[in-house]
Design a protein that fits this description.
By secondary structure, this protein is mostly helical. It has 3 domains: 139 residues, HUPs (Rossmann fold); 93 residues, Serine Threonine Protein Phosphatase 5, Tetratricopeptide repeat; 123 residues, Orthogonal Bundle (DNA Cyclobutane Dipyrimidine Photolyase, subunit A, domain 3). It has 18 helices and 5 strands. It has a 5-stranded parallel β-sheet with strand order 3-2-1-4-5, sandwiched between helices. Helix 10 runs antiparallel to helix 11 and helix 11 packs across helix 16. The N and C termini lie far apart (64 Å). The N terminus is likely disordered.
């Protein structure tokens, strides 16, 4: 049997970087394809291993997350098509799919962004063990490794010390990479036919998630759709409305679309680059002046960076029940009935239940509410924090593996908080942040979304 060896190509694997602005890893892929005078094939692999049930009895990716991701994929696919390229979608285990594609395209090199979480690292290790050349590029932080005052392994675990270190003598960030304006050719049509024959291009049925008019992030509305175009428009609108000047005052809000930047869902899929978002704030400061609120936006983005550097430093330790402090006494009990009551918004505490109903109905809830929900599960119900982290992973449209794990570990007392475990008093929190009970009424058991 005669086998034709196809000319080696370059595969660009989109992961959590569904954009063409500030796309450093994609720039590397383009450069390699041009140097080798070969083609570039952009791909996205729908990871079917994520469809398996978690140890806690539910799937890892719920309807809201699926719908949000679909929007981002469609957007980047249209953008690639406008530049004469094409995004091929596949379903399966990414390591298996990519290894097969690489072999079929003449042992193509796979280029992608680096994700320093254990599951995502295993994917890369498996690919390399199968003989695929893989180049990963770090690009999701404000700072590059070269910007850091020390190696990630030597950075302080505590955020305050980390912030003080990187802010002296001044906070240095990496400039965003130029937006992609051109792309190398696709593989020959005959090669694409072979690719599609081996792994038929898959466009999963678009997931549906019920729209809710009460949502603080109404992603069913046109201006809030997932994807790069809406992300960049939203950042622009946020600055044009001078909202960066009031962020610190409003950031603990519970209702409405303007109490926070609402950047996190786009940041989570990579439809928005953190460096691009921060550059917009720097331009805003140059035009309108800086204040505590514009600084605080950078402060929050630094927290995001910090959780990423912690993953490079500690890896799988962040996923163990005992976290970074195995010698400390930690709750090893998990009450499935109490967890189910929390998960379904039926704990009996109106403030907590309102937050869970919002999360389940919309795939989103405020940062203030998230801290309360996590604290209640851990400290009031005495459940395993990892179960709560898993439910947030399932539900949140802005699920970010680094921040989700880091925040839950932090609140459990097994992370980097020097004060140990931190309990939020839900009664006091309701009094402080929902004094008239408007939020609780909005998400009460009998409340319905307005038509």
């Amino acid at each position: 049997m005669h086998t034709t060896t196809l000319k080696s190509s370059v595969i660009y694997w989109f992961r959590n970087d569904l954009r063409l602005h500030d796309a450093a890893a994609l720039h590397h892929a383009i450069s390699l394809a041009e140097q080798q005078q070969t083609s570039l094939l952009p791909v996205f692999v729908h990871d079917t291993t994520l469809e398996a049930m978690t140890p806690w009895g539910f799937v890892r990716t719920g309807a809201h997350r699926q719908a949000w991701l679909r929007m981002a994929i469609d957007d980047v696919s249209e953008h690639l098509a406008s530049l004469g390229s094409q995004l091929l979608e596949f379903s399966g285990d990414p390591a298996t799919v990519l290894a097969s594609l690489s072999k079929l395209l003449g042992h193509a090199t796979v280029i992608c962004e680096e994700i320093a979480a254990p599951y995502e690292q295993v994917q890369i290790d498996t690919l390399r063990q199968s003989g695929v050349q893989v180049q990963t590029h770090w690009q999701s932080t404000l700072m590059s490794r070269q910007d850091l005052p020390d190696s990630p392994e030597n950075l302080p675990d505590q955020f305050t010390k980390f912030r003080q270190l990187v802010e002296k003598p001044q906070f240095k960030t990496t400039a965003p990479a130029p937006s992609i304006q051109r792309l190398p050719k696709l593989p020959e049509k005959s090669d694409l036919v072979s690719v599609k024959a081996l792994w038929p291009t898959t466009h999963p049925v678009k997931p549906t998630a019920t729209s809710d008019s009460r949502a603080a992030f109404p992603y069913k509305q046109l201006n809030f759709h997932g994807g790069e175009h809406c992300a960049l428009q939203h950042v622009q609108r946020y600055c044009e409305r001078l909202l960066p000047h009031t962020y610190k005052v409003t950031r603990n809000g519970l209702q409405g679309i303007d109490y926070s930047t609402k950047w996190s869902p786009w940041l989570a899929t990579g439809a928005l680059s953190a460096r691009t978002a921060w550059q917009a704030i720097q331009r805003f400061e140059a035009q309108h002046g800086a204040n505590d609120s514009t600084y605080w936006i950078g402060f929050e983005l630094l927290w995001r960076d910090h959780f990423r550097w912690l993953h490079l430093k500690h890896g799988s330790r962040l996923y163990k029940q005992t976290g970074l402090w195995p010698a400390l006494k930690t709750n090893t009990h998990h009450d499935a009935a109490k967890f189910e009551a929390w998960r379904s918004g039926q704990t009996g505490h109106p403030f907590i239940d309102a937050g869970m109903r919002e999360l389940n109905a919309t795939g989103y809830t405020s940062n203030r509410m998230r801290q309360n929900l996590a604290s209640f599960l851990i400290h009031d119900l005495g459940c395993d924090w990892r179960a709560g982290a898993a439910w947030f992973e399932t539900q949140l449209i802005d699920y970010d593996v680094y921040s989700n794990q880091g925040n839950w570990l932090y609140l459990s007392g097994q992370g980097t908080d020097p004060r140990g475990s931190r309990r939020f008093n839900p009664d006091k929190q309701a009094h402080d942040y929902d004094p008239d009970g408007a939020y609780q009424r909005l998400w009460s058991a009998g409340a319905k979304a307005a038509c």
